[in-house]
Amino acid sequence: MEVIGLDIGFGFTKASNGKRSMIFKSVYGEASELQFKEQLLTGADQEEHLEIEIDGTSYFAGELAERQSVERFHTLDQAQFVTDFTKILALVPLSRMVGRQDPVKLVAGLPVSYYRKHKKQIVDILKGQHEVTVVDQNQERTPTVIRISSVRVVPQPFGAVMNMMLNDIGEIRDRRFLDEKIGVIDIGFRTTDFTIADHTRYSERGSRTLEMGISKAFTSIASKLQESSGVTVELYRLFDAVDAGSIKIHGKKYDLTLIREHAFTQLATRIANEANRIWANDWDMDKVLVTGGGGRVLAPHIEKLVKGDIVAQEDNKDTRLANVRGFCKYGKRLWTRGSNPPPGR
Question: Global pTM?
Answer without folding.
Answer: 0.85
